[in-house]
Amino acid sequence: MGYHHFSIAERGQLDALYRLKWTTRQIAVHLGRHHSTIAREFRRGRQADGYDATHAHRSAAQRRQGACPKGKHTPLLADEITHRLQHTWSPAQIAAYHRMHNYPSVSFKTIYRWLYRMQLYPAGVTMLRHKGKRRQPPERRGQFAAGTPIHHRPTVVDSRTTFGHWEADTMVSSCGKSRACIATFIERKTRWYTAIAMPDRSAASMNRAIARLQQQLPPGAIHSLTVDRGKEFATHASITRALGIPLYFADSFAAWQRGSNENANGLLREFFPKKTDIATISDAQLAVALHAINQRPRKCLHWHSAQDAFTLMLSHLN
User: For residue 271, what is the domain's CATH number?
Assistant: First the structure.
């Protein structure tokens, strides 16, 4: 049982039982406390005429106020850190400099915390390289809460021992570019990666892309899809009804639950950086990029390529 401080009601009981001449062990059993805790409380709250609950509670509150840590923040230290921030030093560089030169120890996380709490005036988050933008509230637009969560997905999918379980996502054009995007899919066991161009990020376009993927593969090649909660998967129920493919939704802001897809998207971005207008990418260019990705030897496949592993699995379906 975790430790908790005495309440005023408990101290009232202690006061009453003390005056009834109960022993500390008897009181400990009655209150569900250790007998040494009771003895310590009597010692701290004792007055000339014995234990007094009101006096004991007031004294305990005063002790707790005095026990609060003062922290490392001082005007001198704040001025020194502000001076270095004004000279474009990062919090990590400042913390390392202090550590190497025996200055007052302060971690870079503490410096960030002081910045966000405005404890380094006139320094503020605008003095940081990213101007504090990484601390912005997470983006929640274009998401929905329905669907089967990933925690209800069969455990066999996690082990990657069964073929036919896929992850899907969308790669979009940069802000200000066209609405065109790419639906990306990766098979979890073989890491085989493919992509289908879409005119926009609508649910209808994603439905057509998934149907097209299913048409390109033999029966039994797709058993499930794990996706995020983007608006393009909002009609997941119709996909399951029409194509017989269950969709499982990763938790919000948990990209690691679709790690294979995220990693493969990063590889595809090497061919088409974020400033690329996806509408300008031809089918031939996309095919060349996918071929290069799938032909790379993979350590997780014992240095076989994803293409070889995928072809082998398809041969077992026939």
Answer: 3.30.420.10
